Amino acid sequence: MTIPQLNAERTRTDEAVIRVTGIQHSYRTARGPVPALENVDLSAGPKRFVSIVGPSGCGKSTLLMILAGLVTPTAGERYVAGAKVTGPQPDQVAVAFQDACLLPWRSALDNVAFPLELRKDPRAEREARARELLEKVGLAGYADRYPRELSGGMRQRVAVARALIQRPAVLLMDEPFGALDEQTRMDMGEELLRLWDEIHNTVIFVTHNLAEAVYLSDEVIVMAARPGRVVERVLIDLPRPRPVEITETEKFLHLRNRLWRLIRSQE
What we know:
Elements lengths: L17 E12 L2 E13 L4 E5 L6 H8 L7 E6 L2 E2 L8 E4 L11 H11 L4 H14 L15 H13 L5 E5 L7 H18 L2 E5 L3 H7 L2 E6 L4 E7 L14 H15 L3
Parallel strand pairs: 3-8, 3-9, 6-7, 7-8
Antiparallel strand pairs: 1-2, 1-4, 4-5, 9-10
């Protein structure tokens, strides 16, 4: 069984799928505006896996919400597939949060199919696509289970399947494995790479875990805080596919340590 072609496959290969220029953002408080982001430029091409790392308070999640069209920046512009973003674009950009945010009264199948239900797609079509994606994330036998009957890792797999069901050109992930134990987190990383290797859309992945960023990514954007800004883009020139054993190699550790030094240098 194959996943239908994604919008990302129809994007010209010589242009960025997602791009922001001159992004600035401040939060209003009783004591006045608090700058969260300053002059952020970012782009990601087709079929690229890009992680964003940096200290707490550097605006990683805020930037992701701006990319998703869920937060309007104070200044700057956003583009997806060459079109200016003025609000959410669920047909092009999907978001997976740290909390799976599943509807507890719906089965795994119905949670995955929910975006297509909102779009009023025919029931048979949306259920067939939901079953296909559940199979792809290793949950073919759990379609009728409710969130309370699933482990944390399973719930996150359902959330990823739900994010992918509209075939987005861009998948934004905000610490999706942050609440999981280390073993489950590694398993989810492997699962995500296997799925991404099959569908190859563009992924922007926010994480605090530097080893996770190196393992998953084609490149890593390092941010500094107060206010949040990009300090460097680090190319992850490791071969794909990536077995877990690659995390023990000298080159992997060198890249992980480089990210750590870049973040520490901004403190």
